[in-house]
Amino acid sequence: MNRAEMRTIIIYASKYGSTRQYAEWLGNETGYPIFNIKDIQADIIKDYQRVIVGSSVHMGRLDISSWMNKHWHLMEDKPVILFSVNGTPPEQKEELQKILEFSLPKHILENVNYFPLQGRLIYAELNFWHKLLVKMMKKMDKHPGSNLVLEDYDNVRKENLVNLKNHIVSPAGMN
Ligand SMILES: Cc1cc2nc3c(=O)[nH]c(=O)nc-3n(C[C@H](O)[C@H](O)[C@H](O)COP(=O)(O)O)c2cc1C
Q: Which one has a higher pLDDT value, 1 or 39?
């Protein structure tokens, strides 16, 4: 079966909306349904042949990690695509690998196709604790993501999805 024909569900966790934005772009282009982990009855994963999981990253961790650990048994026999949305640029592979290993066990990481995407940070939109953290990290000049940019930035672009989109339509067996 061509990958493009697989019944696919998109599930995401997003604190400030950039991960949701990527999930919506993907959903609009493919017609795949989109669910926030806050609203989903995880059992519906059983009705799908493939799962795309998207997560924001905060303090060196994927925000979806506990949910994904808890529900992995519903996905483990299907192709799973994971995308993260982070301040760390995709070229910083070691840093991204640290985030993955801090978030998910080996048996999950070995069974997902992973795509890092760049996010955005708008200080004025952060909650009280995150504002405080960013302020503290700036002062200490020490934080979990080395080279993490703490000034406002917005790198959320539709084009960043190109590799992921190529993967989801490519013939099965290819990576
Ligand atoms: C308090 C805080 C901590 C963050 N920690 C990290 C981090 O450890 N690594 C990283 O790459 N990005 C980090 N980021 C950047 C976020 O991943 C980025 O803003 C992302 O777009 C958030 O996704 P969301 O809009 O879906 O919540 C952090 C942002 C904030 C506000």
A: 39
Q: How many C-beta atoms lie closer than 10 Å to residue 86's C-beta?
A: 26
Q: Which residues line ligand 1 (CB under 6 A)?
A: 14-19, 56-60, 85-88, 119-121, 126, 130, 133-134, 144-145, 148
- What is the 60 CA–ligand 1 centroid distance (Å)? 8
153-154 and 120-121 beta bridge pairing: antiparallel
Token pair 């890092």: residue: 116
Ligand 1 centroid to Cα of residue 113, in Å, is 21
Domains located in the chain, CATH noted: 3-168 (3.40.50)
pLDDT tens per residue across span 154-163: 999 999 999 9
- CA-nearest residue for atom 17, ligand 1, is 86
What lies within 8 Å, CB to CB, of 104 at 6+ separation is 62, 65, 68, 69
